[in-house]
Amino acid sequence: MSYGRCFNTNDIRGKLGQGVDTELAYRLGRAFAVVTKAKDVVVGGDMRLSSPALKNAICQGLRREGANAIDIGLVGTEEVYFSTFHYGFDGGIMVTASHNPAEYNGMKLVGRGAKPISAENGLNEIAAFCDRSFEDVPMRTQGRYCMLQHRDCYIEHILSTVDLSNIRPLRIVVDPGNGVAGLVLAGIQARFNLAKVPIEFIPIREEPDGHFPNGVPNPLLPENRHVTSHAVVANKADFGIAWDGDFDRCFFFDENGDFVDNYYVVGLLADCFLRKQNGGAVIHDSRLYWNTQHIAGELGGRAVEARVGHAFIKAKMRDEDAIYGGEVSAHHYFRDFGYCDSGMLPWLLVVELLSRLSCPLSKLTMDYAIRFPASDEVNFKVADPAKAIKELAQCYGKDAVNIDYQDGVSLVFSDWRFNVRASNTEPLIRLNLETRGDSSAVSDKVQELSRFLVRYQ
């Protein structure tokens, strides 16, 4: 079997029994140790039923090549990142398929300092090693296996990034979706109680459960939002938060139960950090960015574009020493968190902001949506993504003010712009579009571009 087919640009993911199995996990552990020459490697896994066996196989593979496997147990992806950079280990491996259905699983890999290992810096070599015959590889001195209790240090670190001394009373619906966020929220609630921070959590679906009794935790899908929205309204909460399974993404619902577009959350957090730091660089992806650029310009900051994907965003964060980076997919990156993405820091910052401004969440993002209305991401299954993107650029390019091929193609016109790019993980092309203050033009232009793209299905 070829295991390399499960390797994507930034991670490993696939269906169980169709490339992702304990044999791949064992080979991955061996490959990781050999290719990276890591000595101490953090390993964690999410709540999926297949994750413990895959995690154990990775540990066996690491130890077979002389590396020490440091098991941090049932965790979110950012806990692997944290443990890697905080304790100074040589690398980390997280077993997760994030928001994919139950029959999927995979792995995310980082090196020293929690720097992502992608196709550009070692993932292809690891993939090739996984497909090797191991008979000619000599036995090394077996590495150690140990457990690490990291969570108290992790929670202390994320709470240290916000000022809890002036938090006003807030009621917050928290919805882990039966993922692993609930384990961390329990620890945060205990800290709040000790410090008398007046935050009341209203938890729903908080128990980790790999059977996914309430469906796959993916709040990016509109059909998955109604439970959180209803809970906010029913409990008269100040706002709500939902996470995906490994909680590296969080999603917001305002006091009316309305879903807050992630694009405007990027703007909100960019505003927050630029005010805190009196300027600096913020990173945005290529899909939607006019609002972020506007905010950075107003506050004396620099808005810098990067390709979609955590490996590209993190590399650009380090290059620019950026204080914050955000993707419209709800990944948020922080210099104070090892330039890594976190699903816990964003809502803590929103709590701090709401307390300081004493206004509802809906008001904070309303001006953004009026100034730069944007579409939801629209996906198209096409037979030849490269051809569709090329011919779309040729058709619309003659009237564009600017054309950028950094990630798919972005075309800018005087009062609207769009980006079309091929997915890194699925056989799709994705369309995002925004305008300057013209909400009716958003739907008109999406329909127009959709008519063009459906011809390539």
Characterize the structure shown:
- This protein has four domains: 3-148, Alpha-D-Glucose-1,6-Bisphosphate, subunit A, domain 3 (Alpha-D-Glucose-1,6-Bisphosphate, Chain A, domain 3, 3-Layer(aba) Sandwich), CATH 3.40.120.10; 153-253, Alpha-D-Glucose-1,6-Bisphosphate, subunit A, domain 3 (Alpha-D-Glucose-1,6-Bisphosphate, Chain A, domain 3); 262-341, Alpha-D-Glucose-1,6-Bisphosphate, subunit A, domain 3 (Alpha-D-Glucose-1,6-Bisphosphate, Chain A, domain 3); 378-456, TATA-Binding Protein (2-Layer Sandwich).
- It contains 14 helices and 20 strands.
- The strands form four sheets. A six-stranded mixed beta sheet has the order 1-5-4-2-3-6, with helices on both faces.
- The protein has helices at 22-36, 51-64, 77-86, 123-130, 151-159, 181-195, 226-234, 262-277, 290-298, 310-320, 345-357, 361-371, 385-397, 439-453, and strands at 12-15, 40-45, 68-74, 91-95, 104-111, 145-147, 170-175, 199-203, 239-243, 250-253, 280-285, 301-306, 324-326, 332-334, 340-341, 378-380, 402-404, 409-412, 416-422, 429-435.
- The relative contact order is 0.10.
- The protein is globular.
- Helix content is 37%, strand content 21%.
- Helix 8 (262-277) packs parallel to helix 9 (290-298).
- It has 457 residues and is α/β, with parallel strands linked by helices.
